[in-house]
Amino acid sequence: MLQEIQAALTIPGLPDWVGLVFLVCLLLVGLAYLLMPFSVFGVKGRLDAIEAQLDEIQTELRSLSLRTPEPGRRRPALEEDWVDPSPALRPAAEAAPRVAPPVPPPPAWPDRSGGPSRSEPRLDWPRTPR
């Protein structure tokens, strides 16, 4: 019977016993995964850490809810807190804001009346054959 299993597990190009060794290793790994507790994978540790974080968040929420004021007392709105600045601090001329941006001055071209002028070379295009 063992020889029949060995013949069925034979891998071409390798010795006859290699297939049996692969099968035994595969069975041992499968057995290890079945017998291994989940805490080895880290699931239990992660769940404990998440539970601790959840407890911290709940205590923080409880402390924040105790610090909030009662519904009858509330802070005044921003408009009620606003105080106009004194007239001495205001700008002297409060003009209406401009609708359009200011027009820039025209570009200033250099004066070429008195100095030597630059002349570009003249091209005879198309050239006429002589």
Automatic annotation (TrEMBL):
Name of the protein described by the UniProt record: Uncharacterized protein
Segments for region (Disordered): 64-130
Residue spans of biased composition, Pro residues class: 99-109
Keyword terms of this UniProt record: Membrane, Transmembrane, Transmembrane helix
Transmembrane segments: 17-36
Biased composition regions of type Low complexity, renumbered to the chain: 85-98
UniProt keyword Transmembrane helix, yes or no: yes
